[in-house]
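Collaborator request log, item 7. Partner lab (contact: R.S.) asked for a structural prediction of Integrase p58-like C-terminal domain-containing protein to inform their binding assays.
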Amino acid sequence: MKTRYDLRANIGGFQVNEKKSWEAPYTIVTRLNDVMYRIQKNPQAKMKIVHIDKLTPYQESHPNEGVT
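Returned to partner:
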C-alpha cells in the first residue's frame, strides 16, 4: 500500500503547504527516509518533519521583472 501511495508522491521541494497557502523558503536539513524530510525556515527556527507531498520547489518571484 505504501509503495502504491509513493508512486504519486512529489519527488522534492523546498516550500511547505500546510494550510492551503505556501510558506517559503525552507531548507532541507536531513532526509530521514524516502518520503520524510526534516526542514528548517532559518537557523534559529524550530525544525519540522514533513512528508515529501507537502514540499514543492521554491521559485523566487520578481515583481518588477519585465516592467520597463
